Structures are given as structure tokens and as C-alpha cells.
Amino acid sequence: MDVARLALLALLAACAGGDGAPATSTGAAPAMPDPASTATFGAGCYWCTEAVLEQLDGVLDVKSGFMGGKTVHPSYEDVCSGTTGHAEVVQVSFDPKKISYDDLLEWFWKLHDPTTLNRQGNDEGTQYRSAIFYHSDEQKKAAEASRAKHAQDFGRPIVTEITAAGPFYEADEHHQDYYRGNKRQPYCQFVIRPKLEHLGLKQ
User: Fold this and answer.
1) Which of 11, 12, 91, 132 has the fewest CB atoms below 10 angstroms from its CB?
2) Over the stretch 88-99, which tens digit does the pLDDT of each residue have?
3) Rounded to an integer, what distance in angstroms lies between the CA atom of residue 73 and that of residue 75?
4) Residue 82 — φ and ψ, nearest 5°?
5) What is the distance between the alpha carbons of residues 173 and 180, in angstroms, rounded to a whole number?
6) How far apart, in Å, are the Cα atoms of 160 and each of 95, 130, 132, 171, 202?
7) Percentages helix, strand, coil for the chain, rounded to the nearest 5?
């Protein structure tokens, strides 16, 4: 559980005029997305993952949310408790004529450390696990082949799970496009910005 992130979000909710009730994820899980133009990745904090992938040419939209757990409509606080089984994920809508699923997998391996179990940097917990949630047999095969291709790249075994996609629960609005709207926040300055700089992306 990341106490600093929870405290920051509580402050943001208060500033937005909230009533103090815990934030909950929005609405029902969407209908089955098009597997030819949808990818779902867990790579630690979804704020970080979103900030990278939304800059790629051919990516149409990136939504932060939760997948892989047992609780229906979990809140951020529920997921941070470690009791729901969900991972923080981003669901990516992309134009396969401009960027392929294989290209997105290449970025997935670059933007996080897939060898640390349930952890990315100081963010620790099962919600931060490395995961690829596939939407078709073709995506499963591509993900497995990509994982095997990069198996020797990190010096330690890859622990990324490759799992069939389940219900995606979109996180609350103040989690979406988080870096763009909160660049001065310490987490953005000390975690996300250096990642973007390292990857040669816009900060």
C-alpha cells in the first residue's frame, strides 16, 4: 500500500469539493473491446504507464483502471488494500495501421522493470505487478513470444504474468491523465518525469 499516494489523492479529492466519501471506480465494465485495437498492461503505477503510452503515435486513448481481481467495481482504496486481487492497469486503444500490438509490447518492456515481483521502485504490493492481459489468442501468442524474446535482456528472470483479460474497471476521473494535470506534484517530479526523460519522451 502506497500511503503517500493515498494521502495525495485524499487531498486532491478534498480540493475538488468532494464529500469525503471514498473514491470508487466508475460505472460498469465495458462491453468486449475490439482485440485488434485494444491492449491492457500492468506495469506498476498506472500514472507512470499512462504518461508513456499516451505519447506514442498511433495510440488513440489510454485509460487507467483495474483488472485481474475478484471485487466488482473496486475503489482505489480497495485495490491498495491488497485484498481485491486487482492490478493497476492501463487499457490502450490504438490504430493498428499506425502502431502494432508487437510495437506496444516493445514499449511495455522498456517502461518498467518486469523482474521485480509485485513492485516497481518504491511502489510495492500485488496491485503493482507486471502483467499483460490479452484480448485474443493472437495477443496471447504475441505476448508469450515477446516475453521469450526479452528473457535475457534484464539479468534476472522476467516475472510478468500473461493472463486472459477480464472486466476492466476504469479509475476515477482524477486518476486519468494524471501526469499532465499534476506535473508539479512530488510523485510526478521524482518518479514519472525521470522515466519520461530516460525514454526520450516529452516531459
Assistant:
1) 11
2) 999 999 999 999
3) 7
4) 80, 10
5) 13
6) 25, 5, 7, 22, 27
7) 35, 20, 45
48 is catalytic: no
Q: Give burial (CB, 10 Å; 0-12/13-18/19+) of 175.
A: buried
Number of Cβ within 10 Å of residue 5's Cβ equals 17
Structural domains in the chain? 38-198 (3.30.1060.10)
Taken in order 194, 196, 201, 203, is the CA torsion positive or negative?
Answer: negative
Q: How far apart, in whole angstroms, are the C-alpha atoms of residue 92 and residue 38?
A: 5
d(CA 44, CA 55): 18
CA atoms within 13 A on the CB side of 151: 6
What SS3 class is residue 197? Answer: helix
Cα 53 to Cα 201: distance, rounded to the nearest angstrom: 10
Rounded distance between C-alpha atoms, residue 60 and residue 150, angstroms: 26
- Which residue in 15, 45, 48, 80 is the catalytic one? 45
Q: What is the mean pLDDT of residues 28-48?
A: 86
144, 129 contact by CB (below 8 A): no
Lowest mean pLDDT across 21-25, 54-58, 120-124: 21-25
With 80 as the cut, is the pLDDT of residue 135 above it? yes
**φ/ψ of residue 75, rounded to 5:** -85, 170
Q: In whole numbers, what is the pLDDT of the chain averaged over residues?
A: 88
